[in-house]
């Protein structure tokens, strides 16, 4: 019987143990997609207690607490931080089998040196021990990033953002982690949402361009893309909850934009046309600048309308969508390829039924001398568990080059979430080791170790083109 969460957790055999401890464990982290606050990083935020750093904003935990019958008062409501922590501690034993159970204990172990199992009995002592550490030196936001051996953090930023805190961080000499923006123009693509007109007004202020036509709009978007590029941005990010595409012309897209600018609702077919043309325009810019373009597909958001109206987005009311993606995704990628050549592209779907579709799709558009130019992105959100990760990686390895995979990201708002990289790396090593044990690949530790290190870090470094030099060392 294995020790609970011991040093060989998830490592099924001696080959996996060697690959993880000798090759994966020490590799740095490139977090190329997350939702950390650049302001909190710049200000080096401190946390008064474990509830603030652990439960605030964490809808993974909130959903599990609700499923355990915890009243909302003790999740996002008016209860004290201690009461909320105790409600989580009572929930934790019920989460066995969920990755959050393992993440919870990895975070306690790696950041606070606590090996105890969290439950209602151990919770008061853990509350005191963690809070004492949080109120001492070495437990602020930047400390957690540094302790996790992170070299790059790519935050998620609206095109209208001033990037004030990214610029301030770049002026500092005592923090050698690159904190770079990502370009997330979703509000400018969702033409039928009530936020569209207000966002366009903010865009024209940010860009300093009066937007009276679609041409003006595209000029303003390009201005912001180039501003982000000047601050070091190397990646865009697009939430595409429903994959859609329709052929159109610049003139037709302009007419659709003008309707929306006047506050009119456009048809679904016109929405498809507007989005397709705008994506093509942005894709050509990304290609010119050498950026990577990310598509996050098939989320079904804000399902509980009563709770969404009360609490807003990203509070735990989202789930997996099941819209078909193959044809519209293929046509969009092909249209960008024909127009300007695809940029580096990373495709994720929240629906694991799309795994083989994406794994086969990316092979259609590889090339240009770039290893793994089109990537099947890591298991995302509801899929970043052991089974989800294995299913995604097996689909990729069956149809493409697993060895060129750019690996894990956090997609998180928490400074403690870097333990998810450890969880992922252990699963990678165990999967490869199983191939060795089955005689499917040769037992060449050094060769396999280089593949592991590529998936952990080296592939992402090369793919995004980060210049990572710290002192006299190059990573």
Q: Could you explain the architecture of this structure?
A:
It contains 20 helices and eleven strands. It is α/β, with parallel strands linked by helices and 475 residues long. It folds into two domains: 89 residues, uronate isomerase, domain 2, chain A; 326 residues, Metal-dependent hydrolases (TIM Barrel, Alpha-Beta Barrel), CATH 3.20.20. The protein has a four-stranded parallel β-sheet with strand order 4-5-8-9, with helices on one face. Strands 1-2-3 form a three-stranded parallel β-sheet. Helix 9 links the parallel strand 2 and strand 3. Helix 11 crosses helix 12. The radius of gyration is 23 Å and the shape is globular. The two termini are 38 Å apart. The C terminus is likely disordered.
The Cα radius of gyration reads 23 Å
Query: What is the CATH homology-level superfamily of the largest domain?
Result: Metal-dependent hydrolases
Count the strands?
11
* Percent of residues in β-strands: 5-15%
The domain count comes to: 2
Offer a concise description of the structure.
48% of the residues lie in helices and 8% in strands. The chain has 20 helices and 11 strands. The chain has 2 domains: 46-134, uronate isomerase, domain 2, chain A, CATH 1.10.2020.10; 149-474, TIM Barrel, CATH 3.20.20.
């Amino acid at each position: 019987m294995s020790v609970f969460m011991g040093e060989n957790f998830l490592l099924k055999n001696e080959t996996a143990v060697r690959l993880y401890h000798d090759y994966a464990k020490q590799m740095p982290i490139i977090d190329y997609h997350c939702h950390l606050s650049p302001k909190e990083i710049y200000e080096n935020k401190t946390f008064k207690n474990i509830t603030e750093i652990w439960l605030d904003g964490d809808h993974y935990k909130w959903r599990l607490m609700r499923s355990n019958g915890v009243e909302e008062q003790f999740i996002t409501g008016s209860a004290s931080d201690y009461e909320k922590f105790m409600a989580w501690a009572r929930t934790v034993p019920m989460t066995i089998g969920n990755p959050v159970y393992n993440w919870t204990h990895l975070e306690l172990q790696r950041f606070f040196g606590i090996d105890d199992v969290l439950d209602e009995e151990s919770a008061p002592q853990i509350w005191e021990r963690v809070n004492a550490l949080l109120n001492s030196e070495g437990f602020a936001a930047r400390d957690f990033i540094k302790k996790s051996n992170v070299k790059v953090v790519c935050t998620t930023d609206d095109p209208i953002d001033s990037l004030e805190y990214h610029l301030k961080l770049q002026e500092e000499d005592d923090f050698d982690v690159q904190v770079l923006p990502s370009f997330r123009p979703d509000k400018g693509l969702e033409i039928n949402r009530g936020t569209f007109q207000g966002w366009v007004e903010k865009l024209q202020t940010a860009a300093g361009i009066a937007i009276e036509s679609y041409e003006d709009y595209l000029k303003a978007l390009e201005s912001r893309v180039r501003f982000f590029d000047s601050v070091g941005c190397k990646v865009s990010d697009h939430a595409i909850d429903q994959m859609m595409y329709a052929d159109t012309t610049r003139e037709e897209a302009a007419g659709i934009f003008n309707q929306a600018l006047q506050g009119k609702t456009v048809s679904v077919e016109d929405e498809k046309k507007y989005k397709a043309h705008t994506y093509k325009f942005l894709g050509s810019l990304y290609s010119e600048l050498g950026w990577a373009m990310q598509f996050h597909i098939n989320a079904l958001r804000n399902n509980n309308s009563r709770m969404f109206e009360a609490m807003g987005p990203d509070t735990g009311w989202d789930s997996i969508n099941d819209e078909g993606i193959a044809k519209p995704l293929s046509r969009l990628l092909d249209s960008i390829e024909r127009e300007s050549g695809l940029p580096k592209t990373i495709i994720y779907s929240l629906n694991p039924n799309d795994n083989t579709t994406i794994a086969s799709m990316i092979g259609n558009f590889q090339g240009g001398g770039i290893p793994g130019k089109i990537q099947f992105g890591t298991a995302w959100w509801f899929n970043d568990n052991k089974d989800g990760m294995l299913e995604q990686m097996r689909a990729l390895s069956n149809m493409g080059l697993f060895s060129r995979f750019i690996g894990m990201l956090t997609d998180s708002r928490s400074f403690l979430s870097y333990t998810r990289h450890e969880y992922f790396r252990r699963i990678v090593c165990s999967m490869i080791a199983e191939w060795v044990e089955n005689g499917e690949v040769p037992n060449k530790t050094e060769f396999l170790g280089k593949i592991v290190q590529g998936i952990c870090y080296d592939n992402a470094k090369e793919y995004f083109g980060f210049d990572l030099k710290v002192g006299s060392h190059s990573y």
